[in-house]
Amino acid sequence: MRAFYLILCSIVAANLIAAQAPRASDGKPDLTGVWQPASTIRGSWEEANAGDGLGGTGKNPSAPVALGSTNRPAGGAPYQPWAAKKVLEFYNHRAIDDPTARCLPPGIPRLTSFGLFPVQFVQTPKQVIILYEYMNLFRVIPMNAKHPDDADPNYLGDSVGHWEGDTLVVDVTSFNDKTWLLGTGTFHSDALHVTERFTRVDRDRMNYDVVMEDPKVFTKPWEYHSTMMLREGTRVREYVCAEDNEDPARYEKLQKDGVKFERP
Amino acid sequence: MRNRSVNACLLCGALLLAAIPALAHHSFGAEFDADKPLTITGVVTKIEWINPHSHFYLDVKDDKGNVANWRLDGYPPVVLSRTGWKREATLKPGDRITVFGWQARDGTNWAHGRQVTFQDGKKLYFGPPSGTGDGGAKPAVDSPQ
Fold this sequence. Notes:
The complex is a heterodimer of chains A (264) and B (145).
Chain A: H1 2-19, E1 33-37, H2 45-48, H3 81-92, E2 119-123, E3 127-132, E4 137-142, E5 158-164, E6 167-173, E7 193-200, E8 205-213, E9 222-230, H4 247-256
Antiparallel strand pairs in A: 1-2, 1-9, 2-3, 3-4, 5-6, 6-7, 7-8, 8-9
Chain B: H1 2-16, H2 28-31, E1 32-48, E2 55-61, E3 67-73, H3 77-82, E4 96-104, E5 110-117, E6 123-125
Parallel strand pairs in B: 3-5
Antiparallel strand pairs in B: 1-2, 1-4, 2-3, 4-5, 5-6
């Protein structure tokens, strides 16, 4: 009987240990691994994305994809009235102006909101590197560093990281104004400041909490809360968007031929 | 019982997965019309696993026996590989398949391919649902006053 309890305790302990977020050699949570953004499902990529297929329920395959409770709310982005009109115009043009249709990088946090493509974290005590399969982009995030004085404005901004307890906080500045933040038309200015918080709450799950501040276009900070799930066995692979990108030419032709594509 | 709960989990998972925001890359809604769903059956003539959108061509015969060659667009190769497709094996020229998708707004023999049904009844997704690339169900902002 005693042996039985010992075995039982061992099994329970093993499960508890397996469920906890691993620690790096410096004692910090170790975020190393391949993750699927915008998911809450445990398991391998194949297990988590089986059934009705990636990108939608498939029950009604023509239905627009709904936004889940863990993701950005539909509507309510705190744009100033003039800027909200512009967002709506992009929406009514059915995202034909999407920078990614020209294979340009999506913005932050948009880059970490696509569930179709895995993201790999490589963590060392001095830097965290994030490798994105989508557009084959990467970010090198030095820890406890200052933003350079002469940082050029760019698509993914300039990132520096630090730990607040068990949360990796990444401060991002020096953006250009050429990306969308989340949904269609969610433009921003070069005054954008993004704060990302990555918290590996257990072995399989990482919370991704973001605050976007841009006094030139927002009335108040815009928050985005999502989760990423560990996908063991998945590799980040090559995605060369420009290989055969026909979309800009198609859009030009659509407009030249007078094809009605705008929302009513 | 265990299998049943696993299946239930997968179903929940699939429903939760509906949370994925807009399709990475192009605008579905500008090029294709969600109000023009179509299901076509034909013989595969060519497959191109290519970025950012793989595509294949299908010879489709109408009631009068006229053959038209259709083009179907879908996921990039990395996503196809993770969705159950194997290059050179899953789909080959000469295969007879049925595709569900949505036609292009320009009215040509071009469509967005969502689901492929193979001769043995197996089904695989070749592309995302129409809504994912259409800019979302609602705009990110409430209507400006």
